[in-house]
């Protein structure tokens, strides 16, 4: 059994190597933009690519510190009990804080070095180091994704301090740019075609056991009418970027994020603790509902309301009113189902896909949703 596990781990490591791109092989050109996870560059690696360099300065520091810490633990004559406690990263009882040496058993001939003392104050030390594992785990997950509605994962730089994800370069614009910046109008039929492709891509991800965790119009590209979803499963590494790189308010809520969060996520929001949110396939479906609303209405739900008001309403089950929305009952029903307060009442993506496919096109054309009567096409 042990030999089997060992062989399997070896195999995993070897196959991970295939996806490891040496940082020096990448050519980086201009910055395309900066998001929560890192900075995206237009790059070249056997052709045009997008390179997302993660903001991980603190991660590297912390991991180096963990090494120092382990080294020091070995070097000094800790008693077994103290070393075990320290290595297990258990929080030390208040009375045993390392600012004084009183917690060290008198038998230990240990002189606390300033670096170790400093280290033990780094509460998130373990978290950060686990994040490197999380990153590698996520890279292992991306390898398994091949779908025409998902961005093509090409590899990753996995050696700190350079952690980067390399994907194909999306040529079109994001739905966010179309809807909110260019104010392009989508016909109801076109919205349905886009929603179908999102459902296909998302259904595939879920079938592979991958939760997107950050489905939003900024992460959906339109390339000549084809939907390409990006940034799936990356949310966990955002924690690396919290703190110095965090943007948003005191809850660590970046602008435009809140309206994608299902009630169970909103209720679990705590200051700077978004990594522990209970993401699930159902929370992805809720986020899809918001994308569907943006497509149909050309704006975010709860538009113009402060975060506290949105949190309060969503948390207790209130939804954006659809009374002013000119759309057929079927279209509104999809929205209401995706936004169900109870997670288990939300449909899954295969179900959504078949509902979208059954929507009567002619009827859609006769009862357009706002503001589909405008003639400008969404993508050229
Ligand atoms: P966000 O998703 O919040 O916009 P990101 O860090 O994911 O933040 O993206 C930063 C910028 O890079 C955005 O303008 C995004 O559209 C762009 N971008 C991300 N991935 C790609 C890609 N694969 N191809 C082209 N542009 C990309
Ligand atoms: Mg993105």
Short description, anyone?
With 380 residues, this protein is an alpha+beta fold. It has 14 helices and eight strands. Helix content is 41%, strand content 12%.
Describe the structure.
The protein is of the alpha+beta class and 380 residues long. The chain contains 14 helices and eight strands. The chain has helices at 2-17, 57-75, 80-87, 114-120, 125-142, 175-181, 188-207, 238-241, 263-267, 281-297, 307-315, 329-338, 349-358, 361-366; strands at residues 27-34, 38-44, 48-54, 153-159, 162-168, 173-174, 220-223, 226-229. Strands 1-2-3-5-4 form a five-stranded antiparallel beta sheet. Helix 7 packs antiparallel against helix 10 (281-297), helix 7 runs antiparallel to helix 13 (349-358) and helix 10 packs antiparallel against helix 12 (329-338). The model is unreliable at 64-125, 239-248 and 364-380 (pLDDT under 50). Bound molecules: adenosine-5'-diphosphate and magnesium ion. Magnesium ion binds next to loops.
Number of H/I helices: 14
Q: Helix- and strand-based class? A: alpha+beta
The ligands found in this model are: adenosine-5'-diphosphate, magnesium ion
Could you give the order of the helices and strands? HEEEHHHHEEEHHEEHHHHHHH
How far apart lie the N and C ends? 57 Å
Task: Describe how the helices and strands are arranged.
Elements: H1 2-17, E1 27-34, E2 38-44, E3 48-54, H2 57-75, H3 80-87, H4 114-120, H5 125-142, E4 153-159, E5 162-168, E6 173-174, H6 175-181, H7 188-207, E7 220-223, E8 226-229, H8 238-241, H9 263-267, H10 281-297, H11 307-315, H12 329-338, H13 349-358, H14 361-366
Antiparallel strand pairs: 1-2, 2-3, 3-5, 4-5, 6-7, 7-8
Helix pairs in contact: 2-5, 7-10, 7-13, 10-12
The structure holds adenosine-5'-diphosphate and magnesium ion.
């Amino acid at each position: 059994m042990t030999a089997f596990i060992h062989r399997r781990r070896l195999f995993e490591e070897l196959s991970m190597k295939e996806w490891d791109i040496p940082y020096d092989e990448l050519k980086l050109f201009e910055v395309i933009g900066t998001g929560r996870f890192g900075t995206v560059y237009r790059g070249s690696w056997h052709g045009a690519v997008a390179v997302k360099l993660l903001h991980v300065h603190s991660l590297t520091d912390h991991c180096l510190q963990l090494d120092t810490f382990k080294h020091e633990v070995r070097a000094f004559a800790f008693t077994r009990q103290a070393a075990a406690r320290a290595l297990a990263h258990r929080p030390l009882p208040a009375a045993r804080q390392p600012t004084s040496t009183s917690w060290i058993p008198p038998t230990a001939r240990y002189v606390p070095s300033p670096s170790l003392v400093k280290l033990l104050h780094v509460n998130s030390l373990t978290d950060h180091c686990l994040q490197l594992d999380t990153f590698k785990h996520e890279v292992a997950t991306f390898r398994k994704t091949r779908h025409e509605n998902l961005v093509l994962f090409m590899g990753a730089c996995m050696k700190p301090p350079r952690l980067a994800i390399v994907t194909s370069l999306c040529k079109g614009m994001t739905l966010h740019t179309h809807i909110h910046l260019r104010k392009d109008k989508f016909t109801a039929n076109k919205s349905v075609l886009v929603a179908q492709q999102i459902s296909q891509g998302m259904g595939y991800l879920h079938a592979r056991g991958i939760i997107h965790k950050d489905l939003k119009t900024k992460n959906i590209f339109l390339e000549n009418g084809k939907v390409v979803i990006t940034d799936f499963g990356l949310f966990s590494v955002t924690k690396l970027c919290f703190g110095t790189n965090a943007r948003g308010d005191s809850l660590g809520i970046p602008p435009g994020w809140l309206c994608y969060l299902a009630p169970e996520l909103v209720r679990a929001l705590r200051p700077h603790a978004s990594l522990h949110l209970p993401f699930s396939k159902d929370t992805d479906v809720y986020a899809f509902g918001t994308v569907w609303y943006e497509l149909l209405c050309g704006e975010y739900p709860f538009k113009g309301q402060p975060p506290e008001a949105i949190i309060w309403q969503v948390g207790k089950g209130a939804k954006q009113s659809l009374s002013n929305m000119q759309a057929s009952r079927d279209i509104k029903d999809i929205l209401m189902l995706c936004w169900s307060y109870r997670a288990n009442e939300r449909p899954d993506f295969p179900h959504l896909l078949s509902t979208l496919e059954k929507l009567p096109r002619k009827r859609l054309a006769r009862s357009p949703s706002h503001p589909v009567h405008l003639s400008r096409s969404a993508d050229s």
